[in-house]
Structures are given as structure tokens and as C-alpha cells.
Amino acid sequence: MISFESDYTTGAHPEILQRLLETNLEPQPGYGEDAYCRSAKEKIRQALCDEQAEIFFLSGGTQTNAIVASSLLQPWQGVLAAQTGHIHGHEAGAIEAMGHKVLALPEHLGKLDPGELADYLAAFYGDENREHLVWPGVVYLSHPTEWGTLYSKQELADISALCRKYDLKLFLDGARLGYALASPECDVTLQDLAQLCDAFYIGGTKVGALCGEAAVFPRGGMPPHFLNWVKKHGGLLAKGRLLGVQFDALFTNELYARLGQNGIDRAVELKQILARHGVPFYLETPTNQQFVVLPDHVIHSLEARGIRCGFWSKPDPEHTVVRFATSWSTTPEDLAALDAALGQTI
Amino acid sequence: MISFESDYTTGAHPEILQRLLETNLEPQPGYGEDAYCRSAKEKIRQALCDEQAEIFFLSGGTQTNAIVASSLLQPWQGVLAAQTGHIHGHEAGAIEAMGHKVLALPEHLGKLDPGELADYLAAFYGDENREHLVWPGVVYLSHPTEWGTLYSKQELADISALCRKYDLKLFLDGARLGYALASPECDVTLQDLAQLCDAFYIGGTKVGALCGEAAVFPRGGMPPHFLNWVKKHGGLLAKGRLLGVQFDALFTNELYARLGQNGIDRAVELKQILARHGVPFYLETPTNQQFVVLPDHVIHSLEARGIRCGFWSKPDPEHTVVRFATSWSTTPEDLAALDAALGQTI
Amino acid sequence: MISFESDYTTGAHPEILQRLLETNLEPQPGYGEDAYCRSAKEKIRQALCDEQAEIFFLSGGTQTNAIVASSLLQPWQGVLAAQTGHIHGHEAGAIEAMGHKVLALPEHLGKLDPGELADYLAAFYGDENREHLVWPGVVYLSHPTEWGTLYSKQELADISALCRKYDLKLFLDGARLGYALASPECDVTLQDLAQLCDAFYIGGTKVGALCGEAAVFPRGGMPPHFLNWVKKHGGLLAKGRLLGVQFDALFTNELYARLGQNGIDRAVELKQILARHGVPFYLETPTNQQFVVLPDHVIHSLEARGIRCGFWSKPDPEHTVVRFATSWSTTPEDLAALDAALGQTI
Amino acid sequence: MISFESDYTTGAHPEILQRLLETNLEPQPGYGEDAYCRSAKEKIRQALCDEQAEIFFLSGGTQTNAIVASSLLQPWQGVLAAQTGHIHGHEAGAIEAMGHKVLALPEHLGKLDPGELADYLAAFYGDENREHLVWPGVVYLSHPTEWGTLYSKQELADISALCRKYDLKLFLDGARLGYALASPECDVTLQDLAQLCDAFYIGGTKVGALCGEAAVFPRGGMPPHFLNWVKKHGGLLAKGRLLGVQFDALFTNELYARLGQNGIDRAVELKQILARHGVPFYLETPTNQQFVVLPDHVIHSLEARGIRCGFWSKPDPEHTVVRFATSWSTTPEDLAALDAALGQTI
Known about the structure:
Largest interface: A-B, 53 and 53 residues
Helix content of chain A: 40-55%
Number of helices of chain A: 14
Strand content of chain A: 15-25%
Oligomer: homotetramer
Shape of chain A: globular
Distance between the termini of chain A: 20 Å
Number of strands of chain A: 13
Largest sheet of chain A: 7 strands, mixed
């Protein structure tokens, strides 16, 4: 079976597994105090060109979003996010479980608009009743967004400037960051994020790791007692080495960049194949996720040929919007098989 | 360096890593829907002799304790635990972060006393003001306890009977369950737990896995929408296969039992070595953790010889109570090195 | 000074104060066990024609919304509300403080549309990923709404039917219920609410009481241990008699109905006065709140003449949308003063 | 019927009701912005000799404890309290509902011992694993305690010094503060509390008000956006005047002191009566609560004569520990009736 359902259908890149094997029986202290966490953090700080950056490794995306966002909030504050923001719609209310509200703003192909954000903030601070409202405290962006779209450096700079003007924290969800950084349409670098954001994470789960996200607080900005906060919310692994070794491998010999590049290279080929077979795009994106509309019988026919894509939404009883995702592990052979199957099906 | 600091200083048993390697590039659905989670659950059900048991794989102990215990509670209830219960003293308030109180009862070498529990419950239900109190809802036990001690089958049966009498749920923390089951002093089996408990977990992190705990709800007792509860609290891994493959390996060819046995066999040797060198026991236990009192200079001397043990408490300025833990990965060579170092030190 | 800022600018109706005086020194048990709470509940049950209705007296609106709504939710559920719902925008995130999400739907002059609600629910149950989402559990309506508008009996019946179809609870915020029931445009009775809702409250604070809201759970539907839930969230008054005596008075000799009627009668006169002076309505409503657009200089001029209205929003730098609210205590003399002041100002 | 069950069996002192009547129809702004809240705060500041003190009026004791204590905590902190502390045992887990743990220490007739507190803090800061624990953040005392006992000024000063040494906040629950201040055995004044505590409250509900507690943050120490925090937790009354008018009356002509004095004067007489009839004391206290052991038939006999006392605990099947509480409203006639009834009963 070949799956384009998501970018988390396979295990870990062999270089990562190899490092897990090599380091397996070395005794190491627990809870992230091990040598590999230390080494990985140092490599990430170098990649960010931020020697003061503080880094904490967590297990998954929802966990990272909830723990990091809430750690940046004051009790009277909530998180601003686009309507389509993962924290707003697809994380089972994990932010609210922390006692904080997600304040939803309009989305534009998954993105917040800096002008609308400015208008919202001006209106909020003009509201005489604002002490009865949830105050904005964090702006949450995802990059790539849930729709595979990208912020430009200018857009991020504008949003960052608004955050500083209004004393908000800017938090960027980088669950798929590797596929943003490798996209030819992306003018944002890791160093830019370290300068513009107050926190962001470098996603591992979807970019070649078994699990793991590297939460980054640039410029020494980790909230005090953050480990305790992580522990209190069940996110602290006894064998922190599992995360440290993986990120150490990901930031050795530019593995993270190479994995992102594979996802993007395969996505380019995917778009060509889909277009060649006349599949109508619901949304064509510069990253590793493509959204197309397929008749349900075509989906079933592909499945019968061992090829799966992911359910997104149901515009009418006979069609489905599906997602085709490439990833660090997608091969040219996978795409050739899709090409052949589409040829037999459509 | 040789570490007796804890049972989570090394990675995973080679048979587990081997299975991760073999299955690495197979596409599998996410969020625990993969073939390995299914297979592992089936093997655990067989080991429990409970075909209706429902199982969910989580990442770590604090996460499992908080998510499972809270899922069993009604809003007006809290968790009864011994003063030394891990949830009461060493998990950064993770139960309270869920909005529930831990109701502490006296401990006896880490254990709850069934008679004291009965007295507490009788007093609670005799209190005319009880609607203003936190009601007991779950009884939390750890087995082995934080002090390495064990409940007898009779004690568990007595506590279970009290729970059923008063409509409480019995939840057993099995972070180190493998070392209980392998202990010659343990008359409790997995099947007993499936009959006596409402929930328990089979600890992986401390018994040979990179991470992972198998939360078991015997007799079809998993709370509804449990996956959503896990997601809401950040415990759902996208690549659930990481947990499924590991538990599938642990329950293949009795690996879990073999790993527990190694921890216990080495603990027997450890106790002999400590006794031979005249090290005074603070607490000698039937499982894999031994507590001794060492002069601080001996601890430093051992460290200089590459041998580490774990801080427990400080009875006076010159001595420390330390923990020596064996584990699935402790070797006879490790113990020989300790023996030699103690010979040179004491 | 005469205030039209809100319907909570004055104290309590004299008949209520009189009852507080008369009963003041009688010893009564605490926490709502007193004779006046019992009597008030019985009178409300009779007014509802629901002998099984269960009633709990709370202190204020936000408290009642958060405590009642959360008591009706399962852990995986949130509250559906209009974008303008008070719980969504004006209660400082009190629902989220309970760990639950408010799921916002479009609003139409403050109201949910039954057809849109039906569409939302159909889409939700058609979403294959719904286990990762917050499930709808409660539908929150306010009646009158935050905009002073009213649901028709047919609309409430349609929403109630949807709730029963999808196993949701219907909760109606009646902070200003007295002004709905007295409105000539309202075809909904207390008895209708008792049949259509799973919970609602009869607002006291804005309809003549010093404080207090009567939360009603028709047909024996109060969640178990509700008193404990109230206590846990700080809503239980030691001297519950304060609430019991007030509601006993409100439901004696139809005081609650009379107070609502005064608010509506004065609102009719208010609308006539505003229209006579050519004040443009932003929204004219059938209840006790009217929204008009005033030049800022007129607002200041009214204030100089001792007349205040309430800030609502700022459409442009020179104008403000303001709210004029009448209430149980508004007098014809108050309106005559407004009439005169407008005559001098406009 | 005459009730000694508690100090909240009657309504409000007539001077308070009189002020509610006099101010009833004046329009006032809501949410504590009214003139009476302002005036009451100023009078309290004068009584405290602390012009910088910040004051917020809340409705009841549990609400005040939970909202104030949590507002002083950092996310990694909990509240230290005696085992018998009201927040630990009798508030349905309201602190935990805020996500924070109560860290219980031994009690001595309801009091924390400064030496034991010092030992605890030294041990905590000596624990190498303390980042995995709940950190102490607030010390909670009640004065009088739940057992009616009192801290000496020296004890409070010692505890306050420990708090400052370890950067903890000292919060004192003054639900019955009036009865402490009037006790001949009390050497602590309101001004002392303003100097030694970081927060405390002056209880109204049990000292003559219908409801209401004045939370005091001496020296400008109210946490930022405290009103929002109160609103978020359902504690903000729309008609804040209800609280303002009552505290304005309580701090006019020393009413609060007079009411405390009545409670103490009657308690002295009560103790004499109980002693005269040979009733064995379980605990004789310097404040308004006395605990005695009565045979159950005596309790029933007193009830038959219209006299009630409060259940406390059940030492054996035939006896009950009961509380006799005097209050601001207890009269010499009440005590004469008790005296007569005891004479007929024992």
C-alpha cells in the first residue's frame, strides 16, 4: 500500500534510527538532562544564529501547542488564531483545557491578515468594557498553515511588529516547518523566526522523526520553571534522550533540510501528475500538501490499487475534497505508482 | 559510567529496536489506528485473559496517571492515594491541573492499608457535611510502590472489595509492573489485576521501551470518547505506531516477563553485594529498587570510579539516603564493577 | 443623575427589601437549606407547571452560565453559541476557565438560526475526523439576546428538537427573562421553557433583585451533586436565604411579571421619545434595550444634564452606538427628564 | 427556634439593612465602580493605616479563598495549609479546580507551626528533585482557625518572615476575623495584618452582612487585571453596590468591631453556662466557637426544646462532638434559653 494520506504514515529516517541504535545502551540522565539533548540544543542554536535561544523537546504537536501557548499567557489572556488554526479546530479543545480561550479571527487560505489583526487590536483597546473580555496575549500562526500556505517574511514582520506594539507574544506552529523552509516560495529562514517570534517549534514528527517537536524560545525567553509546567501537563519524558538523539541527528549534516527538500521535490512531481490527469485542484500549494476534488468512485478505485489519500471535506454526495501529502519518505516510485493508477482510473 | 540511578538510564531492549527497524517504512494510519497497536492490544488481552479489555497506549507515567485517573472521576470526586503516592508528591500537581484533588491517606512503606481505607470511607459517608467535601472517586495504588514494596493479592482483593462496596474505581500505577510480576515475593498476576482493578497500566518506559505505557481498562471499561480526552490533554501521538510496535515486541515471546526477571535477578545480586560490604539498608525491597544510607564521601568515591546512584533524601549533613535501581539492562558486569568499587571505597 | 446605562443601576424592589427586613433575624440553616429557598422553589415550580423541576439559586449571570453550562457537558464537549453570545464575548473566558470551548456560530441580531444549527450538526457528524474535535454538547441561547431580540416559540421548538435529535442539552440564559416574558412580541412562556429547555435561568439581578439568578433544571434534570459543583466553583452562599427570600418575593403576587412589565412599558415610551427627537436607531427591539447612534457631543450634553446611557461601540470618531436600557425601576419621570434633555440638546 | 449551629444563621445587622434601604434607588454604576464601594474601600484603608492597600469585595468565603489564593500563585506553585485548613478539607476542591495543589502540613489545634514550616521549606529547597514537585507559593492561614484558635502576633511575624525569606505570599482567611479582633486573647490588629500579610480578607458573611468578604491586598499588591480574574471565575456581581454598601456600613461607627465584640461577649457567657452544667469541652477557644461532647439524647432533647447546635464529628455511637457558635446576633436571651434547656436536660 502507498499512502498519501498524511506526512506521518512512516517511521523515522534511517539516519535517526541509526543514532538511536548507536547510543542505545549508554547510561544517560533522564528528563532531558542527557548529552544528546544538550548537543541537539546547541546545534539548533547554531542553526538559529541565536546563542541565547532556549529549547525544550516535546512529543507531539497538540502537546506543544497547548503547553507553549499557555506558558506565554497571563491569566486574563487568550490566543488569537485564524479560524482554521489547528488549535482552534482540530485539537479537541486543548487550549481551553488549560483554561484559556482561543480568539478566532478570519482566515485567508489558512492565514491571518496583518491588517485585520491591526484592526482587531485597535478595536479591542478602544473597547471601554475590555476588562470584561478575554485579552489577546498570544498570536498563534502555523507555517505552513493547515492549508499548506506560507507567510511571507514581510507578513511575519508586520505581525511581529504588531505583537511588540501591543505587548503580545508571537508563537509559530512549525509542525511542518521543514516543508516551508524547503519551498521555493518561502523567503523565511530559521534565523528570521528566531528574530520575529517569541516562541516557535521545529516539527519532527512530520519531518522524519518517530516523534518529537523542538520548542524554541529565542533570546532567552523560556518562561521560568518551564520543565515543571511540562511535567504538570504530562509532557515530560523520563527518557528525554529519545527526543534528544533524534533532533541531534536531524541537525547533523543538514538532515532536517534534506528531509524537507524531499517532501517539496516530491510535491512538485505530485502536482505535475495530478495536473496531467486533469484532476481539479481545490487548492494548489507551495508546500507538501495538495488538495484536490475527486469523485468518490475514483477514490475507491485508487484504494483498490493500493493507493490512499486523506479525507478533507465533503462538498457534495458524489465528491470528496482529499489531501495528497508528500513527505520526507515519499519516493519517486510512490509517485510513479500514483501516476499509473490515475491513468487506469480516470 | 555505570548508573544505578534509575531504571530509565538506557534506551530500549534490542528486540524492540529491531522491530522498529523492520516496520519502519510500512505506511500505517496514525493516532493508534495502525496494525501494530491492534496486534499489541490483542496480545495484551490474551496475557490478561480478558477479551473485553480495552487498551490505550500513552507516552509516559505522569501523563498516564493524570489522563486515566481523571477520566475515571466525576466532577465532585478526587483520588485517594498514599502520602507517598507518585501522583501526590512527584508529578508537579498534574492531577490538580485536571481540576481534581488528591486525597492523601497514611502510607506504610509506600502502601495504603486496607483497614485504614475502610475507616476513612466509613467516616466519609458518616459525615453530614460531605456534600461540601471532595468525594473519593478513585483509589490510586502503585505496584511496586515508590518504595519498591508490593501489595499482596489479599490486600489488593480487600481494597478492590472496598472500591466496589463504595462505588469507587481502583486504578493501579504499574510504571514498574514488570519488576513486581517477576519478584519471588509477588503473588499477584496480570490476570489478577484485570479482575481486581478498573484501570491499570503496564509500564514500558522503565521496563525496556524507549517510551510508552499501556493503559488497560479491563472488562470493556474504557470511558467513552477516551481518545478525545487523550487528545485534549496532549497525549495523542500522530505516529501511534511508535508505541504499538514497542508493546507488540514486549508481548512477543514473553519479552516483558524476561526484562522484569533480569531486573529482579540483578537486584538479588545487588542486595548480596551491598550486604557483603556492610552497607546499611534504609529499606530492602523485593523489587528492583534498594535504598541504603551512604556517607557522602563514599558516594563521591563511587562517582570517581564511574558508578552513580540516585539521591533520595538527606538524613544528616554527612549522609545521604540513595537509591540503587537495577533494570532490564543491568548486567552482571555492572554489578561486578560496583562490587569492586565498594571494595576499594569502604 | 438618571441612568439608562443598564438595567442594574438601582438596588432592589421595595417588596423584596421588605421581605428581607421581615425575615432578617429568623434563624435559618445555611447553604440554601432554608425555608425561603424551599418556598421560592415551590412557587417557581408552580409557575413552570413542572412539579419535577429542580432549582438552584446562584448569585450572578456569568457564574450561572459557567456553572450550569459546564455541569451539562461531558469532558469531550463544548458549548454552541452565537458569536454575540454573552458567554463567548463578554464573560472573560469563564467557560474556558472550566476547561470547555465555546463553539461560535453565526448570529442574526443576536440569535442562532435553527437552519444553520442543523447544517452545522449534520456537517459535524459527517466529519470523519470528529474524534479530534470538540463535540457539541450544549446549545446556549440568550432570551432576550444581548441585542434585546427574542426567539419565537417556533424557533425555540426547532432548536429544542435538534438538541434532542443529536443528544445535546439546551440551555437558555434568562438574565433578562422578565423583559422577554412581558414583551408583546413574545409568544414564549415560562411553561414553554420548562418543556423545551434542559436548563435555563430566571434572572433576578436585572429584574429587581439585589443579586440572584434561579437556575432551573426542568423535569428532574439537575446533574448529580450539583451543590458540590457550585461549591467547587465558589458559587455557594453561606446565607442562601439572601437568594431564597428574594425569589420568594419575586414569585409572590406576580412581582416578577410586574417588574418585567414596567421595563417593557417604559421601553415603549422610550422608543417613542427617541423617535420623536429623530434619534436614528441602530437597533430597535421588542424588549428593554434600545440601541441608537448619537453624536458624541449629544452624549456629553445629556451627561451635563444628568442623563447617562451606555457605551456599545464606536462606528466612527464622532459618533457612538449607545444603549438605552429601561428596567423594573425606570419611572415615567425618568423618561420625561430624558425627553426634556433631548429637546434641549438636539 | 434558637440556633447555635453557626454564625451565619441570621440575616444582616439592622444598620446594614438600613443603609441598603436608604441607598436603594440611587443609580450607581455596576461591577464595583459605585460610590459605596469607593467609600468602603477608603474606610478600610484608614482602618488598616495603609493608604496603598487595594481592596476587592467578593461574595463568600470559598470564592474569596480560591480567587485570591490562585491570583497570588505562579503556575508551578501550590498553597501551603494546615491539614485542617478550610481550603484543604471543606471547600469541595475549589483550589484544585483552579489547577493548583494544596500542600498540607501538620496542624496544631488548627494552626500551622512556624518551626515546622521552616523545616518544610528548608527540606524543599534541599530536594534535588524539586523541579518535579509542586513548589510552595502561598501560605494559607485562617484566623481564627477552623477550630476557633488564634495565632499570636509573634507567630504571624515568624511565618511572615519565612514567607519573605523564601519569596512566598502570605494569605490569611479572615472569614471570622471580627471574632478574632475582639477576643481578649488576640494581640493582632488589622494594622498588623496589613503589614504582615500579602493578602487577607475581612469576613462579612459571618460578622453581620448578608454576604460579602473584603479581600485586601496591602501596600498596592493586588495582582494585575484582578477584576478580570474575578469575572473569569464568576465572582463579579453586576450590582457591586450590594457589597459596597454593606462594608461601608460595617466600617462606619466601628460597627464591625461592635459586632465582633458581641460574638465574643456572648461566647464568654456561653462557656460559663456550658461549664456550669458540666458539659465536657472537646475544645474551649478564645473566639466565638466552642466544641463540646454531648450524648446524642441530650442533643435531641435540646432540639425538642428549640435549641440547635452543629454536628462536628462522631467519636462513638452514643456521643457527638458539636459546635456551639455565637455571633453578632446572639442575644443574652438566647443564652438564657440554652441555660434553662440544659438545666432541664442534663
